[in-house]
Amino acid sequence: MLPEFKITQLRHFVWVAELKGFHNAAEKAHRTQPAISLSIRDLENKLGEPLFEKRNAKTTKTELTPFGRSFLPRAKELIDHHDRIAKDMTLLAEHKTGHLRLASVPSIASRMLPEILTRFLENTPDLHISFYDDNAAAVLKMVENKQVDFGIASLWEADEHADKTFTPIWEDQIGVVCQSDHPLAEKKGLHWKELRGQTLIRNGTSRLLQETEAGSLFAASQFYISNMISLIAMLEQGLGITTLPGFAFPQGNSNLSFIPLQEPDIVRHIGIIQMSNKSLSPAAESLIQFILKSANKK
């Protein structure tokens, strides 16, 4: 049966060897000299060979046996390997190293996450993050396929996702987006009937209107654009108008206007989506708690 080494005993052995004495090793270990002697004796019993020559009464010098000299570099190697693993696991538990993967809908990715991630990473320079920006359906699929630790999106038809946990964090109102010189841009709020006769462009969030009176408008729309960059470009060109959540409206865009849709009054809920049966890494759990704290959620 192979001997099972205790890291503490290996450290005691290395200290006695390097400091040339049990007394010096005892001081370094903050132990008594008899305790160090007992530790070394137990290690020698496990190995079946003495590590140190019998001490000469005329000198306090401690010398290694040939076996001890052979064992010393191996003991150091074992200690170094143990300490590397212990350090890595400690850093991982403190979310200071490792690899974290998350996905988010574009509106939160561009508006909320830059500041949150900047602050979160201030004390975690060794943490690697892979970030994916896509629509809600794609984010949900990445969570399901375990491509990411968690996702940030809306969860439609929540009753069909019993295997997932949804923690709501943000909410924003749906509004109409059009060119700034469009007649609708002068309105303070809009009723869905005022959109009749307009060229409507559907997008990924148009499904929020499907179960409302306004659903018929988008069901007959001529255009569907899934990519936000392309959608904004088409709106600026005057191809038509669309509906978007407030967070998705590009900040500082003077070419477009956002008018709240008052009837129907629809609010989109966005939050953390994760698999119920999947444990999160310490880094992922810490980021979620940081996001909740940043959003003043407990």
Would you kindly provide a written description of the structure presented here, covering whatever features stand out?
Keywords: DNA-binding, Transcription, Transcription regulation. Residues 5-62 form the HTH lysR-type domain. InterPro entries: HTH-type_LysR_regulators, LysR_HTH_N, LysR_subst-bd, WH-like_DNA-bd_sf, WH_DNA-bd_sf. Strands 1, 2, 3, 4, 5, 8, 9 and 10 form an eight-stranded mixed β-sheet that branches. A two-stranded parallel sheet has the order 6-7. Helix 1 packs across helix 4. By secondary structure, the chain is an alpha/beta fold. The longest helix is centred in the N-terminal third of the chain and has 28 residues, at 66-93. The protein has helices at residues 7-19, 22-29, 33-47, 66-93, 106-111, 113-120, 136-144, 215-219, 228-237, 282-294, and strands at 97-104, 126-133, 150-153, 164-179, 190-191, 201-202, 223-224, 242-245, 256-263, 267-275. The mean pLDDT is 89. It starts with 6 loop residues before the first helix and ends with a helix. It folds into three domains: 7-93, Arc Repressor Mutant, subunit A, CATH 1.10.10.10; 98-170 and 274-294, 3-Layer(aba) Sandwich (D-Maltodextrin-Binding Protein, domain 2); 171-268, Periplasmic binding protein-like II (D-Maltodextrin-Binding Protein, domain 2).
